[in-house]
Amino acid sequence: MTYEVKSLNEECGLFGIWGHPDAAKVTYFGLHSLQHRGQEGAGIVANNSGKLTGHRDLGLIADVFREEKIFDELKGNAAIGHVRYATAGNGSINNIQPFLFNFYDASFGLAHNGNLTNNISLRQNLEMNGAIFHSNSDTEVLMHLIRRSKKVDFMEKVKEALNTVKGGFAYLLMTETELIAALDPNGFRPLAIGQMKNGAYVVASETCALEVVNAEFIRDVKPGEVIIINDDGFKIDRYTEDTQLAICSMEYIYFARPDSNIYGVNVHTARKNMGRTLARENKIDADIVVGVPNSSLSAASGYAEESGLPYELGLVKNQYIQRTFIQPTQELREQGVRMKLSAVRGVVEGKRVVMVDDSIVRGTTSRRIVNLLKEAGAKEVHVVISSPPLKYPCFYGIDIQTRRELIAANHSVEEIREIIGADSLYFLSEQGLIDSIGLQSEEKYSGLCLAYFNGDYPTPLYDYEERYQKSLGEKVSFWEV
Amino acid sequence: MTYEVKSLNEECGLFGIWGHPDAAKVTYFGLHSLQHRGQEGAGIVANNSGKLTGHRDLGLIADVFREEKIFDELKGNAAIGHVRYATAGNGSINNIQPFLFNFYDASFGLAHNGNLTNNISLRQNLEMNGAIFHSNSDTEVLMHLIRRSKKVDFMEKVKEALNTVKGGFAYLLMTETELIAALDPNGFRPLAIGQMKNGAYVVASETCALEVVNAEFIRDVKPGEVIIINDDGFKIDRYTEDTQLAICSMEYIYFARPDSNIYGVNVHTARKNMGRTLARENKIDADIVVGVPNSSLSAASGYAEESGLPYELGLVKNQYIQRTFIQPTQELREQGVRMKLSAVRGVVEGKRVVMVDDSIVRGTTSRRIVNLLKEAGAKEVHVVISSPPLKYPCFYGIDIQTRRELIAANHSVEEIREIIGADSLYFLSEQGLIDSIGLQSEEKYSGLCLAYFNGDYPTPLYDYEERYQKSLGEKVSFWEV
Amino acid sequence: MTYEVKSLNEECGLFGIWGHPDAAKVTYFGLHSLQHRGQEGAGIVANNSGKLTGHRDLGLIADVFREEKIFDELKGNAAIGHVRYATAGNGSINNIQPFLFNFYDASFGLAHNGNLTNNISLRQNLEMNGAIFHSNSDTEVLMHLIRRSKKVDFMEKVKEALNTVKGGFAYLLMTETELIAALDPNGFRPLAIGQMKNGAYVVASETCALEVVNAEFIRDVKPGEVIIINDDGFKIDRYTEDTQLAICSMEYIYFARPDSNIYGVNVHTARKNMGRTLARENKIDADIVVGVPNSSLSAASGYAEESGLPYELGLVKNQYIQRTFIQPTQELREQGVRMKLSAVRGVVEGKRVVMVDDSIVRGTTSRRIVNLLKEAGAKEVHVVISSPPLKYPCFYGIDIQTRRELIAANHSVEEIREIIGADSLYFLSEQGLIDSIGLQSEEKYSGLCLAYFNGDYPTPLYDYEERYQKSLGEKVSFWEV
Amino acid sequence: MTYEVKSLNEECGLFGIWGHPDAAKVTYFGLHSLQHRGQEGAGIVANNSGKLTGHRDLGLIADVFREEKIFDELKGNAAIGHVRYATAGNGSINNIQPFLFNFYDASFGLAHNGNLTNNISLRQNLEMNGAIFHSNSDTEVLMHLIRRSKKVDFMEKVKEALNTVKGGFAYLLMTETELIAALDPNGFRPLAIGQMKNGAYVVASETCALEVVNAEFIRDVKPGEVIIINDDGFKIDRYTEDTQLAICSMEYIYFARPDSNIYGVNVHTARKNMGRTLARENKIDADIVVGVPNSSLSAASGYAEESGLPYELGLVKNQYIQRTFIQPTQELREQGVRMKLSAVRGVVEGKRVVMVDDSIVRGTTSRRIVNLLKEAGAKEVHVVISSPPLKYPCFYGIDIQTRRELIAANHSVEEIREIIGADSLYFLSEQGLIDSIGLQSEEKYSGLCLAYFNGDYPTPLYDYEERYQKSLGEKVSFWEV
């Protein structure tokens, strides 16, 4: 997943805090640990006793907040922050969150992780009624719904709005007097609450952000919940009872940091289990196990332990690859000049290699890595993938919205094996994945969204239904892509 | 070695090429894979049929060459490049290499990796005779020696100069008609030659740079050799017969990339062997093995395999840590807010952990990591170090020039264990290190410089002798540092 | 007016074009000549056959459009542009215009010069009905009014909105199919139409921008008019008949470029006449006439010609003063270290100087310049001001909204003379100003707004009425300011 | 001279100070007033009780010292600074001055204004003896000469070096204990000494820099002098008696700021006299007088006064023209789109205009301005130039080193008139120039270098002799240029 084209992308990370004198700085450090969830832009809105100020820009969090003095403008003991994933060609600062809204009677900060499935129709409807949007983001729609609500009580307005938007969402809303967190009825995106030693409450997309700021984990936010945090503590409320846990399984497989726990399951451990399960599901006669860095190292070590094969560092990722603007020309690429990933000849030469990766999207990356290993002298390359084949688009926050880019939607495992040049190819079974994660849930879906693997979407698709149906008929060969 | 203070630092990486139409670009990609050897600045000098042009600046290679158009000024089919390590407080662009010298009768590019032990006296002597230096770098001195040589033949001038400088050095010298590479009589720094498919010759500090540009490894440059590459091919010459291989053992332990081979020994394999040897040398009753990322992961997996304990991802390094300008205030630090390294609670909680690291310099980092693991619930933390205790300064290119900063110079192993808060502490033995690397060498020193461990310097110390003798008498407690 | 504190500030410049293949570039050059009307930020929205794209940022136009490639994103044969004046402490990119609005059914670009007097109440009213604003600018309100209009025809919506906003405004509105320009019922701000040789229509805040792009002047936009330009040519329409020309007299006195004509009157000529009139109104026994550069040089040369005294370059302005970030410390300032303006000792030493300036706001600048001349050896300094005393705030687009900062609101001419240290002080009379400009107008106000001099506001003050009434009672001495 | 191509360029400005606690800051303000003498780069070297530190970079002084914190590194009570003129295509930071030299036994800062005529041969000779140069600047050579001098006493070394270099030069040399200023034997470049109220001594290229820092003028540095300033005061010494004042007349005509005095003559006054003399030398039947801004405004006002014609602002220069990166394309240029200079239609329409400019180099600029005025409706344009025709190159510091670019070297006045499209054309006579400046000097050359007008060079041309002789034979028509 890490070579040349990063094809699966999360949409955003959230961090919020209430009750710390250095709220914006703590938010900075929290967001820093969530940087893997989005690299296009970042922002923070701070709340200084009811006065909200914000700073946001394109770039990594370290660039956006390069200068200490920016924090002078972000005073206050509460803050929310956001890192945004780069959707191609839309790099406008207007879309960078949190949004800061100033009204004659109130101010709000708002940040969002996820994707609304009825955003297009909601937006059109609002515009027909005079609404003006200032971004392409589907975050803004919630604020319009809140402001136009006829309810009298503010929390009732918020709940009405939350019941109107559909799809996958985790929201952080900063008002002048409280921090509100809300999760969609399926809990597609993770969101956890913790508490710092000084009593400050923290909400974050992943528990790794709690650890980084030394906050103690309290609980995961649950589907349909809306959490209100203010100077009196935190209160759990619901905006709907109609919920069904279906957490995105790709969080465990690929997105989340290995040191995060989601619904009590450690991500590294889940991945290691996926590797173990893979080894049990398929016996391969080989010499060494090599993981594709960095996201597949846990699964690889699990595979190695279970299979008894040695775990080796056969692929090395350049640590300095971020922000490399100069790319090899086509000619240099053909000459084998590469930057991101190197095969370790001294390790793989003459060996039968089990190469563990987390997923295959278009197949081009896998093909390149297999080729890399063979050029470095590997005798055989057996590819094992710690997830089932990706066949269906996601509409809840991952950036695969067409089947055209999914090789497994259009090709059999054997065809894929041939395309990527592997000596054998194995995917983790769906049940193997469910068992490896081992989520304790009595609910349908075993608490996991596996729609990308089996097309079983936990919700209606609304604005995407038509596009989806059309995509089912598409038959695209790899070579056209 | 990777937490908060990076205390051991290499001084620079070299890359040179002769015979490729895109020489500067290939150099860029080569340097990119050597970025770990120096992050302060970078530069390239290109040779366009005798016309030399250069570009250099402070920053990572990706920043220095951020814009494609820079390469328009770096035309030609030969080039040399350099990445420079940041010595504190001296961040002047004047010191960034390669240096480009324009004379009325010739032009030269010059790049250097290493440290001269007689630089101060040579420089003073030259200045007394009218020489003007424009940098603090000890690279410039070679050019002065060449230009002032009374020899008639150019290569004789170069050899005379190489016999005048002492210490550790690898030089790349670009003339209008050839690329010259030279290595000191002890071969302290690695330097390898390879060849691209189109016939271009490549010289690089590490073989990983050969791999990245798809060049085939030909041979290591040997102590006392001077290599001349031009349109007729490459020629091996010597400037001295008085050589004694003593390659820096820290290259194997910590500096070099795991995918590099040095004198035929793969670095990852050497490190894995160090871990295995450690496990054989010391039996520890524990539950899991955790390596300090990234440099100790190989040793940790070796330790795990040899000991039979599971290898776990108990520490996670933030991939986005480079260029983070905002640091936690002292207050936030005390509250436990941290950025670079996280312990994985889900993995280490309740476990007896073997923590594998590559070295202990001042001890502060080790103490913090041990503490991190314990805060995350580790029941016991046993620290094993894949090198002997660092007791003596290095004068050949590593940035430890005083014993004051070396905890092992002043404290027993038991004292260090107590200081860092470990339950037990083991260092690899000197013989264990030599065996793990397994260099085939009949020479004294087993072909390795182990001076930082045992004070046995392979050369006179010249300008540093006095400082060294004084440092032997220093007795500094950890707490003063 | 040009020394240390620039106290009177215009709010913005506009440029629009329809029918030129390089519309955005021509807009750039037009805006460049309007840079004196605003230096905080700039932007351009281009229209490529109905597809609108924009670029805006903080900074001078030359910075905002520093890179040629920005224009690749601004294709199309129509464009509008804006330069914005820096109101203190509000340097957010959100306020930089033109605004670009994207709706499901249409896109618009909108730019504005002026100040609405009922902006606060309109905005509050809109927000109470669910509107969300994204800037502090009073430009956005027009778009909300248009989108919420119940009229069916688009131009009827626009006219309704124009009749709802009050105060001083010149708007440029880019739709997908036309460029619309509108002026408030008093014509407070100048706006002129021209035509390029290729037939393209151009609208600009000042005629100097027409000259720069070699467009022929057609006519001034008149109060209450709305101009529609499209591929069929341009059409003049009105949204109201209730108009009363009252062009801002400060445009002639200080803001506009001397090469611009406003309602047929050349600005340089008007200023020269002000100087002549001043010389006729007050005879001064002196040796030389010196203008404060750059805005008072025309008036000074008029004064010199009429009085027969020689016109001398007794004050020199540093041409490189823009963007100077380092300022003298208080200590250096006291030692007389200065940057912006120098007195020419060789010219003024021993002389009785008539110093011509265009206005006195707080008086601090005048005091410093008088002092500068005296320190350089001037025997006497007689200050003549080419406008009447500034006594009242402006609510139509100039940045003086309180009487507290106006020395003439609180002090007699004799008191001011003493404060600024002049040997004598004369202001131009109101009738002298009217005559010097010589606008051909039968209307009340002689076609000029002189409210800052006499408090006779041509419109109700709406949201500002209360603040204004309060300010009338304020009595502030210079020394408190 | 100011339209589109700036063809005559000064080479650099100098500022030095000894005895002020804020020496670097004062130097900054001094350099700021000398910015017109060079815009390519700037630097300051400060002396903190013998410890020299420096900062230099490409760009305007305001950019190079954009951040206050830079001055934290420039502590000390003495400093020298330099602004450098941009010679085409050589924008390397290596050439930006002052140079800072660190030797084992001493440190020096060195800055230079002028051009050495024997630089090439001196440099080659030094290189043949082992010297290494690090810039293309001819400044470095002086330091090599000083360091290689066999004299014992330091000032004797300096004097020997000053007697070895030939041509035009003003040097500032900062040692650890003193500030040394030296001027060439002809005094081609101006250099003045002043004193601040706190006693600090200041040396600057122009007296305007003294005024800006409120220093009192003491005296001009004279040809052949070397001034030594230290804590004991300042001492005047000489390195040669063989002197002959020949100050560059272009300083009066074009380069220097109008508020500067050179050898007691105020530059504005000299220019006004040139205008008066022109009016006396040639009677023109016209309506108005217009100067080309900014350098010809003084001459134009002199012409107006003497002729009795009104002085009008018929040409306006855009104040924001510096750093404009986007230029009109050829196509837009042909359509008349322009940026720098505008003709004021309201002023010149229907008028017979006397257009005053300071010089004609290639003629292209004059032709454009004449055309501009005619397009704006001028009935006649009579061009009067406040200097004699430029026919010969300069080798002492102005950037005209070939006759090929000088229209007057190849064409008669009548031919030039026709080329530039003027109705008549007059140049100031040589004697008129000498009289207008009115320098009190009994020496040959009347104390002025007029070589560009008459080819009478005050010194041998050394390395340039051959090139000069060749250029005399060149006959190039305007249309080839």
List the helices and strands and how they pair.
Four copies of one chain form a homotetramer.
Chain A: E1 13-18, H1 23-32, E2 41-48, E3 51-58, H2 61-64, E4 78-84, E5 99-102, E6 107-116, H3 119-128, H4 140-148, H5 154-164, E7 167-174, E8 179-183, E9 192-195, E10 201-204, H6 207-212, E11 216-220, E12 225-230, E13 233-238, E14 247-248, H7 249-255, E15 261-262, E16 265-266, H8 267-281, E17 288-291, H9 297-307, E18 311-312, E19 315-317, H10 330-334, E20 341-343, H11 345-348, E21 352-357, H12 364-375, E22 380-385, H13 407-410, H14 413-420, E23 424-427, H15 430-437, E24 448-449, H16 451-454, H17 465-473
Parallel strand pairs in A: 14-24, 17-18, 17-21, 21-22, 22-23
Antiparallel strand pairs in A: 1-4, 1-10, 2-3, 2-4, 5-6, 6-7, 7-8, 8-12, 9-10, 9-11, 12-13, 15-16, 19-20
Helix pairs in contact in A: 4-5, 8-9, 8-15
Keywords:
homotetramer, 481 residues, alpha+beta, Glutamine Phosphoribosylpyrophosphate, subunit 1, domain 1, Rossmann fold, 2 domains, 6-stranded antiparallel β-sheet, 17 helices, 28% helix, disordered N terminus, magnesium ion binding (chains A, B, C, D), Ntn_hydrolases_N (chains A, B, C, D), transferase (chains A, B, C, D)
- Helical proportion of chain A? 25-40%
How many beta-strand segments of chain A? Answer: 24
Please mark out the parts of chain A with pLDDT under 50 across 5 or more consecutive residues, or reply none: 1-7
Number of domains of chain A: 2
Query: Based on CA inertia axes, which overall geometry of chain A fits?
Result: globular
Instruction: Please name the two chains that share the biggest interface, counting residues whose Cβ lies under 8 Å from a Cβ on the partner chain.
Output: C-D, 70 and 70 residues
Strand order of the largest sheet of chain A: 3-2-4-1-10-9-11
- Which structural category do the helix and sheet elements of chain A fall into? alpha+beta
From the N-terminal CA to the C-terminal CA of chain A, the straight-line distance is: 17 Å
The amount of beta strand of chain A, in percent, is 15-25%
Radius of gyration of chain A: 23 Å
CATH topology of the largest domain in chain A: Glutamine Phosphoribosylpyrophosphate, subunit 1, domain 1
The biggest beta sheet of chain A is recorded as: 7 strands, antiparallel
The CATH architecture name of the largest domain in chain A reads 4-Layer Sandwich
Provide the CATH superfamily of the largest domain in chain A: Aminohydrolase, N-terminal nucleophile (Ntn) domain
Specify the number of helices of chain A: 17
